[in-house]
Design brief:
Length: about 325
């Protein structure tokens, strides 16, 4: 019998229940995957609490995993049993040891990418890819600001930015996280608990500001971040770790320098199979050539998903966290 985590009602980490179930067989266009590792991401918290819509309860959370194809359904020709695969994106259901899912959401893994590394990097790494290479295509010589530099997305971002010749400024909440960010490519690291990050950004940029702020924190930093931008700069809000941004007056954008704001998602940037494979290919290349190293700093048994969520929400984690079935 297989097992999965179920959420019967939205709420705190305690609503995550470990239950036995029958995953069934793959239908047309589907694949049965046996997970070797499942990625933990902050979007899982948003789904658990109901901040992001999930449809009716109960549901199984999780958008990222990697493992081996157990069986394929009718019409699936590009995947075979025994093949290693990974994914990041809907449908929900990664918190399981076995699951059936659409074949076109799966990415075959090259030999140079270990399965657990894939589970730790697909969502975070492809997020960095679209942020850095598409939403604002950073170029050599650019100086950019990234919030939560010691998190899973942040550590990948710092390395990839440095590889591209981009000067990255990162914000963190402790001296330990500052050292971690510095070791992962950030040219400047600001401890926002000890320094005014707006003043430091202005100092670092000689008062010019940055062309882009990448913000996965949300409410606590979004408005001050606008003061870090150069005229016509872009604020990229891609997460709500401190809560969602609310009541943004568009006149504020004009008053602060004709600014731009976007709220992108990985799902939009990988909405077709062609886009998905291109995004993953870019990520695989920088990992296999050593430019980006994936840090798996926490591992929890799948049955202890509640403890993993508590650690994530308390900001006690760094790098990537895996749930192991």
């Amino acid at each position: 019998m297989a097992h999965r985590i179920r959420v019967h009602q939205h709420g705190g980490p305690e609503v995550l229940r470990y239950e036995a179930y029958d995953p069934g067989s793959p239908g047309p266009g589907e694949v049965l995957v046996r997970h070797e590792a499942v990625g933990l991401n902050f979007i899982d918290v948003y789904h658990r609490t109901g901040l992001y819509a999930t449809g009716p309860t109960p549901f199984t959370p999780g958008l990222e995993g990697a493992g081996v194809v157990e069986a394929v359904g009718e019409g699936v020709t590009d995947l075979v049993p025994g093949q290693r695969v990974a994914y990041a994106g809907p449908p929900l259901g990664a918190y399981a040891d076995l699951r059936v899912m659409p074949a076109d959401k799966l990415v075959p893994l090259p030999d140079g990418i270990p399965t657990d590394t894939a589970a730790a990097m697909m969502l975070k790494g492809m997020t960095v890819q679209y942020l850095l290479r598409q939403t604002y295509r950073a170029k050599p010589g650019d100086t950019v600001l990234f919030h939560a530099a010691a998190g899973g997305v942040g550590l990948i971002f710092g390395q990839w930015a440095k590889h591209l010749g981009v000067t990255a400024i990162g914000t963190v909440g402790s001296p330990e996280k500052a050292e971690l960010a510095k070791a992962h490519g950030y040219a400047h690291v600001i401890n926002y608990k000890e320094e005014d990050f707006v003043a430091r950004v202005k100092e670092i940029t000689d008062g010019k500001g940055v062309p882009v702020v990448y913000d996965g924190v949300g409410k606590a930093v979004f408005m001050p971040s606008l003061d870090c931008l150069a005229p016509c700069g872009l604020a990229v809000n891609f997460g709500n770790a401190s809560g969602p941004v609310e009541n943004l007056n568009l006149l504020t954008l004009s008053q602060k320098g004709s600014l731009f704001v976007t709220r992108p998602t990985l799902m939009t940037y990988t909405r077709t199979r062609e886009l998905l494979l291109a995004c993953a290919k870019d990520l695989f290349e920088v990992v296999m050539n050593g430019a980006v190293k994936i840090e798996i700093n926490q591992r929890f048994p799948l049955k202890e998903a509640e403890a993993a969520h508590r650690a994530l929400e308390a900001r006690e984690t760094t790098g990537s966290t895996l749930l192991i079935p």
